[in-house]
Design brief:
With about 260 residues, this protein is mainly beta. The chain has three helices and 15 strands. The strands form three sheets. An eight-stranded antiparallel β-barrel has the order 1-2-12-10-11-4-3-13. It has a five-stranded antiparallel beta sheet with strand order 5-9-8-7-6, with no helix packed on it. Strand 7 and strand 8 form a beta hairpin. The radius of gyration is 18 Å and the shape is globular.
Length: about 260
């Protein structure tokens, strides 16, 4: 089951987007995010950008909301020491990293030469928007990958988690007509009703989900099924799989 303390609900008029957070990779940004959520900073902001085959992004479009006790800028958390992480390695190669796999259900990469590990920009991953300066992000502006995995962003942006339910609500949004997919008129923006941690929501109102543990034998079998499909439709088995083509199985629990 998802940990309510590290699960975020983004409430839209169309429904709920559920995000599983990654404290092992971005503790400072998640601490700042918690401050923003506690003071209801996100309530009433909007989705300001929907760029085709790339990302959906939300935040304060005018940049005038006071941050309260949250930091305005933070040092980037692009990577971290690989030691101590439960890394489940994929058997096939990767263009962007020496090794790829999963850490606690999140797509990740690592490099033995530097001893560093980082999260990867796969579909559904959630990142912190920033300006040119590497330390200009603070988790008040977030984006979700809605297109082909932009892995060139790895180690250039702080990633804080992944969407586990609600991606159709984001990927089907009208594309922005401005540069980089930004909405040009206020009425085009999609309002965010509220952002809450699952732990803040009464248990009866929570979205009850289970995610498959990536260190399990079941997950190994799921990966192999993606690498070599044994079905009547497949003519040629690929014999390999790339990191972002391994979706993590998530299922709803009965009430």
């Amino acid at each position: 089951p998802l940990d309510p303390a590290r699960t975020l609900y983004v409430e839209l008029d169309a429904g709920r987007v559920v995000i599983e957070l990654a404290p092992a990779f971005a503790p400072r940004h998640l601490d700042n995010l918690a401050k923003l959520v506690r003071q209801r900073w996100f309530d009433g902001v909007g989705i300001v950008r929907s760029q085709d085959n790339y990302v959906v992004q939300w935040g304060d479009p005018e940049g005038t909301r006071p941050l309260g006790d949250a930091a305005r800028t933070l040092a980037p958390e692009f990577d971290r020491p690989a030691a101590g992480l439960p890394f489940t390695r994929l058997p096939d190669g990767d263009v962007y990293a020496p090794e790829v796999g999963f850490v606690d259900g999140l797509p990740a990469a690592r490099e033995s030469a530097t001893g560093r590990a980082w999260l990867a920009h796969c579909y559904g991953m959630v990142g912190v928007g920033r300006d040119v300066a590497a330390d200009s992000g603070n988790a008040a502006e977030l984006y979700v990958v809605t297109g082909h995995a932009p892995r060139h962003l790895d180690r250039n942006v702080t990633l804080i988690g992944r969407v586990v339910e609600g991606m159709p609500l984001l990927s089907a949004l009208p594309r922005g007509t401005g540069p980089l997919g930004f909405y040009e008129r206020p009425e085009q923006r999609v309002p965010i009703r509220a952002v809450r941690y699952a732990s803040e929501v009464p248990e009866a109102q929570r979205t009850r989900l289970e995610a498959l543990r990536t260190e399990s034998r079941t997950f190994e079998r799921a990966v192999e099924a993606r690498r070599n499909r044994h079905d009547g439709w497949t003519v040629l088995q690929a014999g390999r799989v790339e990191l972002c083509n391994v979706p993590l199985p998530v299922r709803a629990l009965p009430r």
